[in-house]
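Q: Got one fold?
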Amino acid sequence: MEILPDWMAALEEEDLAFIRSFVLCSGSLKEAAALYGVTYPTVRLRLDRLIQKIKLGEDRAQDPYVALVKRLAVNDKLDFDTAKLLIQEYRKQKEVL
């Protein structure tokens, strides 16, 4: 594959390795948990965060600021309540302009 999709290019190598392992486990969270030596909820959380990262890649084209705030929240650099508040206020200010 010569051209990598934008959503995939934005992921870290560790994320791509997880996707590969998950697919090779036929999408079984239970098998992925056993492969990584962690609990099912840990793998579920990892998958949920990966889903959020992929969605962020789609949001980035729409509004870079909102995508940045969401990315910070997903990466635990900013709590979700603060991220939500920042996005709400930003959108209010954009409506005024």
